[in-house]
What does this fold into?
Amino acid sequence: MFINENPIPVNEILGSRTRWVFDAPDRVESMILQSNQDLFRSPLKDYRVLARGPELTKVQIASLQVMVFDPLSFYDGRPLFRRFPSLPNFAFRVQREDTSLELLVDLLNPGWEFYCENEFHMGWHWVDREMVTLAKALFPEYASESSSSMWKRGAIKKLAETKN
It folds into this structure.
């Protein structure tokens, strides 16, 4: 794992409204999305939701906050290496008062996209194992027992077929 010795403060990465919503959310919803190679930098409304999970517990919200607010969780561009763009396949809708924030996550090729009002941020994240663990806890009926696999064999395909 790459460790950034001089992390950029989160307030220089994420916008003030995004940070405000994540600081004290009223509720957080979880969803499995269908990946779509044709979507690039698209908000949640453009994705097909395959499954809606439970709202996160206070402990799960705290875990997500640690991931988001830790500057070491964000890639700062050094060292440069080639990687495929992320294809979100999981999402969180974070609500605080009347403001909604969408966090779209690629669980296979660690990347995330934040959408909150007119704020947008995307990038590589270093919390892929933690994020996969959280996703599996939210969707145990689809989760693989194997640490090398995320979902049970055929689970996502079956979800996509039932949504047609």
